[in-house]
Design brief:
Elements: E1 3-7, E2 10-13, E3 18-25, E4 33-39, E5 46-52, E6 58-60, E7 68-73, E8 78-83, E9 92-99, E10 109-110, E11 114-119
Parallel strand pairs: 2-11
Antiparallel strand pairs: 1-3, 3-8, 4-5, 4-9, 5-6, 7-8, 9-10, 9-11
């Protein structure tokens, strides 16, 4: 069973930073792609970022490119999302997700989510 341990959400002022972490385990396949989706109140879920464990390729939504950085610590099986220059529109529940690749049927698995609130 795939399990996620997400942490790092909270309340921050606009312009501030937060770092989300996701420790994922229980995969039946090697080198999962792990990333983050988010869902703001009244809006659909959207992909934020993804990292491929096989070659460390990274992907970002246009709205966060240049402000967010995804990276992994393979020794800890943990993926991080460093979020800088946060804006009120970044307020959402952030879900750690995983799949075979950062595309196609991705994601296959979802974490429970962590709240990020950015005040103006």
């Amino acid at each position: 069973e795939v399990q996620f341990a997400e942490s790092g959400g909270g309340l921050v002022q606009a312009g501030g930073s937060l770092r989300l972490s996701c420790a994922a385990s229980g995969f039946t396949f090697d080198d999962p792609a792990i990333g983050w989706f988010r869902q703001a109140p009244g809006k659909e879920r959207e992909g934020v970022s993804c990292i491929s464990s096989s070659d460390d390729s990274t992907y970002y939504a246009g709205s966060v490119k240049g402000r967010f950085t995804i990276f992994s610590d393979k020794a800890k099986n943990t993926v991080y999302l460093q979020m800088n220059s946060l804006k009120p529109e970044d307020t959402a529940v952030y879900y750690c997700v995983a799949g075979l690749y950062c595309s196609g049927s991705y994601p296959l698995y979802w974490g429970h989510g962590t709240q990020v609130t950015v005040s103006s």
